[in-house]
Amino acid sequence: ERFRPDVIHLTGPSELGMFGAYFACEMGVPLVASWHTNVHEYAARRMRWLTRRLSTRTGAATERGVEAGSLWTASQFYKQARVLYAPNDELCALLERTTGKPCRLMQRGVDTEMFSPAHRTRTDESVVLGYVGRLSVEKNVALLAGVERELAAMGVTGVRFLIVGHGDEEASLRAELREADFAGVLRGSELAQAYANMDVLVFPSHTDTFGNVVLEALASGVPAVVTPDGGPKFIVRDGETGFVTRDDGFAAAIATLARERGRLAEMRTRAREYALGCSWDAVFDRVYEGYRAAIDQ
User: Fold this and answer.
1) Which of 2, 210, 220, 242 has CB atoms 3.0–4.6 Å from 236's, for a disulfide?
2) Cα–Cα distance measured from residue 179 to residue 160, given in angstroms and rounded to the nearest whole number
3) Pick from 242, 209, 259, 15: nearest CA to 106
4) In this structure, what is the dihedral angle of CA atoms 185, 11, 41, 75, given to the nearest 10 degrees?
5) Which tens digit of pLDDT belongs to each residue from 215-237?
6) Can you give the C-alpha Rg of the chain in angstroms?
7) What is the pLDDT of residue 68?
């Protein structure tokens, strides 16, 4: 009883999460849970090794079935909690619809001293397009090679990629990208310097719930180009701190910044200003409010 917690907070339907839910029930402790990964979308995309071998219609139907089944399974876990958290409004609405439980925003903050334009060491005039994250199919990284080809066709020169991360798609990216440096997995000061030396973050994922790397890039004074799916679109202010566009608009957005250096400089400033307002204190204040609501139920 001495070590009995006031609230148990679980971060997903893992084996550890299942144990946590069991002990919360046994001890009569309020359970809250937060959603961090779109497991249903990941599961569908991970099935593409199979669905690409099927007819278009059958493959699409199979992916929809896998996604729906994975979402239902996850929702059964989240139904056990009194209060839910999610990193954006769309996911909050999804969880409330599938579980019938209240959901609160749990966004993320950024260390603006670690991630800062002050760490920039580059002085050349080239445009460095950065990517940070897993090199995997659910991150839609195959688009990077297509963007490079489109930029070349537009006559945009002096552009190269800086790829930070590892994954199953690394070999194909190495084969397809003509101007790219692969830095592997970076952390700490090396990661901060890599961000600061980018000019634009290119983040083509459709499945990220928040997009930590996008916020870290903005803090580093690096505007981002993201898709209109998932969490990153809630971070980027379209036309101010980057662009929110469909896959077929990525090259045009990047070309705009490569050609209009004044606009790129302005976006760099606005990106940094936005990130300075994303404090961890504000994030945790909202989390604690949810804890109080769970205890009071």
Assistant:
1) 242
2) 5
3) 209
4) 170
5) 999 999 999 999 999 889 999 99
6) 21
7) 85
Provide the 10 A C-beta neighbour count for residue 229: 19
The amino acid that residue 219 corresponds to is A
Longest CA–CA separation in the chain, Å: 69
Give the bridge partners for 33, in sequence order: 10, 84
How far is C-alpha 11 from the geometric centre of its chain's CA atoms?
16
Q: Which residue intervals of the chain are DSSP H helices?
A: 15-27, 39-46, 48-51, 56-78, 89-99, 142-154, 170-176, 188-196, 212-219, 250-259, 261-276, 280-296
Q: What is the 3-state secondary structure (H, E, C) of 14-67?
A: CHHHHHHHHHHHHHCCCEEEECCCCHHHHHHHHCHHHHCCCCHHHHHHHHHHHH
Residues 234-248: pLDDT tens digits? 999 999 999 999 999
Contact 282, 109 (CB under 8 A): yes
Cα–Cα distance measured from residue 180 to residue 228, given in angstroms and rounded to the nearest whole number: 26
Q: Reduced to 3 states, what is the DSSP secondary structure of residue 142? A: helix
Please give the pLDDT value at position 3.
63
49: CB partners within 8 A, 6+ apart = none
Structural tokens at position 168: 């199953």
**Quick count: other Cβ atoms within 10 Å of Cβ 287?**
17
Q: Which two tokens stand for residue 245?
A: 């566009």
b/e burial code for range 191-207 (CB count within 10 A of at least 16 → b):
bbebbbbbbbbbbbbbb
How far apart are alpha carbons 10 and 244 in whole angstroms? 32
CA distance 174 to 176: 6
* Residue 1: pLDDT over 60: no
